Amino acid sequence: MAEKKHPRKKKVELPSGPEAFKKMIDIYPPAFFPPEEELEDEVEEKQKWEDEQEVSISQKTISYRDVSEDQEIEAQAYDIEETESQTQIKQIKDVEPERYTKYQPFKFNKNKTKKESYKPERKINYIFIFLAALMIGAILWYVGFKIMPKATVTIQTKKDIITFDSLVLMDTSVSKPDAERKVLPAQLLVFKESQSGEFAATGKSQNGAKAKGTITIYNNYNALPQILVATTRFVSEKGLVFRLDSRTIVPGAITKDGKLEPSAIIATVTAEKAGAEYNIGASKFQIPGFQGSPKYEKFYAVSEKAFTGGGALESKYVTAEDLKNAEKVLGDKLFTLFDNDQTTKIPQGFKLLDSAKIVKIDNIQIDAKAGDTKDKFNVTLGGQTKVIVFSEAALITIIKETLKPTLIAGTNFYQEPEINYQNIKADFDKGTISVKILADFRTHYEIDDTEFKKELNNKSVPEAMKLIQSNSYIDKAQINLWPAWNSRIPQNTNRISIVVD
């Protein structure tokens, strides 16, 4: 036969007697207890089971079932004499009949071998909860009233204006500012730029176009120079006539080791007539005006490049308006480059006055003149701009040094002034600018933040305002505290901000 196990529960010490038993019945309703006959059998059977297990039982565990809720409950009690239990049950039946008869009798569960789990009743440690709440409250109070609070004190001090009205010289020849002489170092900057472009000729001719070319004229006749007037004729090997564009002086030949060596000069010629046949290649030319004299063989010309521009149909030529427009287009581009130089190439912090710059166009190259038969022509413009610049910060510094003796005790400059430049005279030969400076410098009373914070810390708003108003140099003040519940300026000066307006 399998060994029976009886579950054990923790003993509950109850005082003996009817009154104690009545209290137990209040906890465990009397209907849970079986009738007298069944109770006797159950007690004897339980006693036998305990004897077989050789376990001293001082406690009886009674299992019962709640019929209405179908839940198994365990009841514990000390051994009570049989006759006394019956008497007590009857007394309770008479006193609480409804409560007693509400439940059905119960029996021991003989087949139950698994030990029931028991969860002891937990007691709430109110002292621990109180101490924890007290500690959390202290931490929150410290954070909320000592760490989080901050104060912003905005102060408006009394202000004044000092005016500077005097001449100042910016000089490129000095290296250090001189407040007494009111002389400031300056720099002369030169920016060079050039622009080139190809332009179309707009003039039209119905008579055809004349070819043009370049020739080299030689003098192998004597050591004397020879003057050739404009329109002097030169005849090519093919018999085509070209005329000299301008008066030309051919230098005399050179005598070397008893021998005469020819001299030469380059000149331009234009075909006598229009036509494409005048677009000849390299050729040799004679001067028909010397024909019949020794000069005819000793004066000659040679072309190395082909002549161009000749045509029998409608042709284009360069007009004076074409040249003017070309110069304007390139001039505008050139001035744009100069403006860009003044923006990007002037050192940072330096100021340029409009009257302290000069622009000069010193190079103009055009490969055509008005009336030239050409479809296109090229123009190149070159120039430079000169500027004298100075440091405005250095100017403000020497003005402040000049005005310092006039400051009221305890005051100092604040905010940068607006400077008005008048009567500007630039001398680029000397590298100087003479200018009249008119400026208003604002002054206010200075406040030592560190000492002022020490005076304000841990004071209430009324106390702090009273302290602030006691200073004659303060016009207005405002104190802002954070968080909203904070009513005093923080003791920690790092949490105090002083804003001087």
Task: Describe the protein.
Among the domains are: 1-122, no CATH class; 146-159 and 446-500, no CATH class; 207-313, no CATH class. With 501 residues, the protein is of the alpha+beta class. The model is unreliable at 1-6, 55-83 and 98-108 (pLDDT under 50). Strands 4, 5, 18, 19, 20, 21 and 22 form a seven-stranded mixed sheet that branches. A six-stranded antiparallel sheet has the order 9-10-14-7-16-15. It has a three-stranded mixed sheet with strand order 23-3-24, with helices on one face. It starts with 17 loop residues before the first helix and ends with a strand. The protein is built from ten helices and 24 strands.
Keywords:
single chain, 501 residues, alpha+beta, 7-stranded mixed sheet, 6-stranded antiparallel sheet, 10 helices, 24 strands, 37% strand, elongated, disordered N terminus
Give the helix/strand layout.
Elements: H1 18-27, H2 36-53, E1 59-66, E2 71-78, H3 82-95, H4 97-101, H5 126-147, E3 150-157, E4 159-171, E5 183-200, E6 203-205, E7 210-219, E8 226-228, E9 233-235, E10 241-244, E11 248-250, E12 254-256, E13 259-261, E14 263-274, E15 283-286, H6 295-298, E16 299-303, E17 315-317, H7 320-344, E18 350-366, E19 376-391, H8 392-403, E20 411-413, E21 419-427, E22 432-445, H9 449-456, H10 461-469, E23 474-482, E24 496-500
Short synopsis of the structure:
With 501 residues, the chain is of the alpha+beta class.
As residue ranges, the low-confidence spans are 1-6, 55-83, 98-108
**How many extended strands?**
24
How far from one another are the termini? Answer: 101 Å
**What is the number of helices?**
10
Helix content: 25-40%
Shape: elongated
Beta-strand percentage range: 35-45%
Q: Profile the largest sheet.
A: 7 strands, mixed
Radius of gyration: 61 Å
User: By helix and strand content, what is the structural category?
Assistant: alpha+beta
